[in-house]
Amino acid sequence: MPWISVSMECDAESVDPFSDALIDAGAIAVDVSDKAAGTVEEQPLFGEQCKPGEHGWKRVIVKVLFPRDTDVPSSLMQACRVAEIEACGYQLEVSVL
Fold this sequence. Notes:
Number of strands: 4
Distance between the termini: 6 Å
Oligomer: single chain
Helix content: 10-25%
Mean pLDDT: 83
Radius of gyration: 14 Å
Structural class: alpha+beta
Low-confidence stretches: none
Number of helices: 2
Largest sheet: 4 strands, antiparallel
């Protein structure tokens, strides 16, 4: 079954409410990684959970998986509205999994 994969950049302070809002808006999976991964600015986290209000990374890449029949722009706008963040640019990719 084909899935729609979406990638976008987000600030770390917004990623938790944004991830929850994405799931509520129809996403089936959300992955968060360090935007600086693979660079000298990478901040490795080794299974450590940050305390509330603390964030291990400054900027993150959010990868989201939606069912193929999802209206992705509407789902993203809904998630941004619920998480109270500005809409951000994103890249769409259709994947067959």
